[in-house]
Amino acid sequence: MRNKLRLLTPGPTPLPEEVRLALAKDMIHHRKSDFVRVMERIQPGLQYLFGTTQQVLPLSSSGTGAMHAAVTNLFAPGEKVLVIEGGKFGERWREIAHSQGLVVTSLVQENGQAVTAEDVGVALKADPELRGVLVQASETSTGVLHPVHELGAVTRNTDVLLVVDGISAVGISPCPMDAWGIDCLLTGSQKGLMLPPGLALLSLSARAWDKVRETGSSNFYFNLLAERDKSLNHQTLFTSPVNLLQGLAVSLDLFREETLEAVYRKQWALTSMTRAGAASLGLELLAKTHFTWGLTSIKLPSGIDGGLVLRAAAECCGVVMAGGQGELKKSLVRLGHMGHVDWGDVLAGLHALRVGLIAAGGYSAARTYLEDAVGAYEDALREGCPEMRV
Amino acid sequence: MRNKLRLLTPGPTPLPEEVRLALAKDMIHHRKSDFVRVMERIQPGLQYLFGTTQQVLPLSSSGTGAMHAAVTNLFAPGEKVLVIEGGKFGERWREIAHSQGLVVTSLVQENGQAVTAEDVGVALKADPELRGVLVQASETSTGVLHPVHELGAVTRNTDVLLVVDGISAVGISPCPMDAWGIDCLLTGSQKGLMLPPGLALLSLSARAWDKVRETGSSNFYFNLLAERDKSLNHQTLFTSPVNLLQGLAVSLDLFREETLEAVYRKQWALTSMTRAGAASLGLELLAKTHFTWGLTSIKLPSGIDGGLVLRAAAECCGVVMAGGQGELKKSLVRLGHMGHVDWGDVLAGLHALRVGLIAAGGYSAARTYLEDAVGAYEDALREGCPEMRV
Fold this sequence. Notes:
The structure is a homodimer. In chain A, α4 (88-99) links the parallel β3 (80-85) and β4 (103-108). Helices cover 45% and strands 15% of the residues of chain A. Chain A has helices spanning 17-23, 33-50, 63-74, 88-99, 117-126, 148-155, 177-180, 206-215, 224-232, 242-258, 260-280, 306-317, 343-359, 369-383, 386-389, and strands spanning 6-7, 56-59, 80-85, 103-108, 130-136, 138-139, 144-145, 161-165, 184-188, 200-204, 284-285, 295-299, 319-320, 322-323, 332-336. At the A-B interface, α1, α3, α4 and α10 of A face α1, α3, α4 and α10 of B.
């Protein structure tokens, strides 16, 4: 008997059965009334998820495609932007901005550190020509949560657009677009939304739409103005990933039944659980204060090869976790607990982490790491999550 | 009791059950060995389908995304290309080329007419600075098959690249990339491949790769050189549409079991069947000689509103067909018979066409249109398809 496969990575995430059945539906035509009904059904759910009254646009691409779409539609070559580089996905903002011919100022953060609103304010004051701040809500490569709420307070009364990659935040931790003054919020289907990859979602504020019109981008495939016109008629500009949108309709229904508040509360509790379990195993956490919900980055003791840890966890326990990225590749385990994952899965994940650690030559005297973890989960569920306590 | 839904459009096409079950599989991680195995499994099948020894790259986009990728990677702003404009998708080549800053010469074809290799030869001679010919193998908007085989004979000994949109040709009618001297062949998942939309496939000849290196495109999301490096290691550059690739593996297995020759033979026979049925109904066909396989464009008698025909066919018979595009919107019915469609579906389609025609105020004295159609199918199956008889 093989172990059950448990996918505990920071995306793609496991799929609920309802979603899988929707993905398996036979095809409908993307220019007919059946599809229009799907588009009509998803828009209010997307606006609820994004916390916006603006149109949320589905794009046939990965999340990176939506990042590319945002940069090429919002900024003209030669314009200046501030990029928050806290890891691989911050670097990706910089690379996309460079490919578009933008002039980039980077605020590079140490691994595990979030940017501060103060530093961003200073940088914007130092160069009044900066036209945008490009940031991750959650930097997936390190598990750091940047203070988007506070950044919005800095940018909202200036002419600087706040462009937020919410790929591992939307549907996982609070990121209400309108309330926080976000000008562009985007995400991918394979994280909090509990879908396969292949669908990106993007929304712009009213002033961001003005900037798109002013910029007049020539990006043919990612043409947000034309896409918006289609979306207002419940259509897409080009052929859309029909079965992912059918799955999305089901996933959004699940969000509305559960309520976003309950989802955030659960994600916070799972995060608290994982952090408590890792600490009880004697392991250090990379992000001390501003940590991503739905993903925990755990440092390995020096001398322990993360590749061996992951392989043993997968082979002995059926638990698939992720390593670090770039220079952190072998020194980090990223345990994902976003989307359709529950406390029982995290128990399996923590035990698999211990099995992997010992297989890789590590040592752990921990005896109550599972009880400590589940206790932290119950406490966190009772107390509610930080944004709800504010 | 409602009618069964029969999707007889030129894409998306109905899905085989095996594919639907693969689409419903729970998620696997796109950077782990399970996914590498999917990528290893699909590459030989894709090369068989494309008729090439070159790498075939999966892209997370619609087919239009692959067209955009081809143009932006192959040609630098200011370069000259010849576009064959035989309908909406020829126009799309022009629009994409313009968006990239290319200088476009168009060979506009009348609706229903294919370009001739002679005209292309003359145009290339007239302007030795032309660097590419952009053409549809099948112009889906009119159901015309351009003579790609003959165009390849014109371009192969020149420095002009032959760039072929095979979106409604690959897996439907012969289009062997290497044998015909095609420099870029691309397709989407939702036509011959019997998958939902959301995945594009693209392959380049050796000399096209040289041109991509020379051009040095700055397209971040569609970076074909970087995508190729990943593909050679059974990876994708960014997160890929995992469940569509799992479905593709199943679809490609079906092609190999059936053989491409048998698929082409069937598609030719269904095309012959539909044409015979429409003629027997007294209707005129738009494309007289160079017609697409897998799609039949049928002209409506003057005064008949195509919108009413389609609505009645859908409401009374459950058969979903497509109208024309652009100026042909109301005067054409496009009956799709590509992918997972058989002779029984086409019988239903032809009867629905007659029901629609009469509901829209038309008249048909036809009595044996179904027998005529199925007879033509059997004859065509026996005789084999044209490219096999060559």
